[in-house]
Design brief:
mainly alpha; 3-stranded antiparallel beta sheet; 66% helix
């Protein structure tokens, strides 16, 4: 039986608002389109969607696909809010199971969008500190690198928090943050730190490694428009960060030293430092992505699985095999979680994949090409590209071996 025009409009408006909300959560285009198709079928409609980082297009019809209602709008690129994504998925599940009447759904969705974040400004500052310090600790036994990176990360948080709220400064925020990181690390080089490494660690939270991975995944899945535009945006972000940090270092070469060089000799951290650092990094990412506190242990488990399996594979078979095994294990775990709990497996996937994405390798390659100095050992463009390919291949095989049966 055909829907009344008013009922048809209510359902299409809800789906459009749901699509906007999923975009604001940072979900990738493939998952948004698939989820919206599932919800559209659940509500008794037919539709097609075309989603990219900057556009949202949808067409709805009941019986005749030629007689369509079309909605087109331009959207802004969004950050990542996995906590909101989790709550939206739970709302849609409640509608599907009949626990929530569709009449209440638009109001409940609006309420989710208006909810305050789970963490305060101080909590987000802590996440920046932990991210910079933990990343440096994972890759370097020198405690000075970790402490300096954590301190500079806090300074960058203050800059980003302030400048992002001003429209005229927002386009240059990344350049300014990287500039301050470069200048600060260069100024403190006399205390015994590795400046390029500290810069990389302090801006790692701004690195588009996840965006690069998502872009290549979308391209491999045939979402060429979305993947290509996301790839261009991630590349431009990388170039902004590199230009800013290089400018900061260059400025300090023209200024006199702040004081006599005093090299602090600290005992190197033991090898087991890596595991507490992973825990700290997982907590930091959970705060940054607005994950509810009770869900943090799941993210920590995903991080352990991703990192542990990748290290095992790298030790046994080499770096590319380690990257493949890490992403395969993480994908299987995330899809199993989605099957058992009917929750969004992409949340655990995102938290774990960040430990694997080689975005820092691309940055260090740029640094090596320009300055001739390697931040991380044995970097090359071919290795970074193959690392991305191995990572994406692992995720594709995980979805083939154990489909999630969930669109988010």
């Amino acid at each position: 039986m055909p829907l009344q025009p008013e009922e048809f409009r209510k359902r299409t408006r809800f789906i459009i608002k749901l699509g906007r909300a999923l975009h604001e959560c940072g979900a990738n285009s493939e998952r948004i389109e698939r989820h919206l198709l599932n919800v559209t079928g659940m509500l008794g409609l037919h539709a097609c969607f075309l989603v990219s980082p900057t556009t949202f297009t949808c067409a709805f019809w009941e019986d005749d696909e030629i007689d369509q209602f079309i909605h087109i709008e331009r959207v802004e690129t969004a950050g990542i809010n996995l906590g909101l994504l989790w709550e939206i998925d739970r709302l849609v599940e409640s509608i599907d199971r009949g626990q929530v009447d569709f009449i209440e759904a638009p109001e409940l969705l609006q309420g989710l969008l208006l909810n305050p974040p789970h963490y305060s400004t101080a909590g987000h500052a802590l996440s920046w500190i932990l991210t910079g310090g933990a990343f440096a600790t994972i890759l370097s036994p020198n405690p000075l690198n970790g402490l300096t990176a954590a301190t500079i990360s806090f300074l960058l948080f203050l800059i980003v928090e302030r400048s992002s709220s001003t429209p005229s400064w927002r386009p240059v925020t990344l350049i300014l943050a990287a500039f301050v990181a470069g200048a600060s690390a260069a100024a403190l080089s006399g205390i015994g730190i590795n400046p390029p490494f500290v810069i990389l660690s302090s801006i790692i939270i701004l690195m588009p490694g996840l965006a690069l991975t998502v872009a290549l995944t979308e391209i491999s899945a045939g979402h060429l428009v979305s993947g290509s535009s996301r790839l261009v945006d991630a590349t431009m972000t990388m170039l902004k960060l590199f230009f800013g940090s290089l400018s900061g270092i260059a400025l300090m070469t023209f200024l006199p030293p702040l004081g006599p060089a005093v090299s602090w000799e600290w005992a190197p951290l033991p090898p087991w430092r890596v595991w507490p650092a992973i825990g700290a990094l997982s907590v930091a990412l959970s705060i940054a992505f607005n994950i509810p506190k009770q869900k943090i242990p799941l993210g920590f488990l995903a991080a352990l699985i991703a990192f542990g399996s990748s290290k095992f594979g790298e030790h046994q078979f080499g770096m590319y095999a380690g990257m493949f095994l890490g992403s395969l294990s993480l994908g299987l775990f995330s899809n199993l979680f989605a099957r058992v709990t009917r929750g969004p497996g992409s949340i655990l996937m995102t938290q774990g994949i960040i430990l694997l994405v080689p975005g820092s390798k691309v940055y260090s390659i740029l640094n090596h090409w320009v300055s001739g100095e390697s931040i991380l050992p044995a970097e090359s463009a071919a290795k970074a590209l193959m690392a991305f390919v191995a990572l994406i291949t692992g995720l594709l095989f995980a979805n083939a071996l154990l489909p999630a049966r969930k669109s988010l």
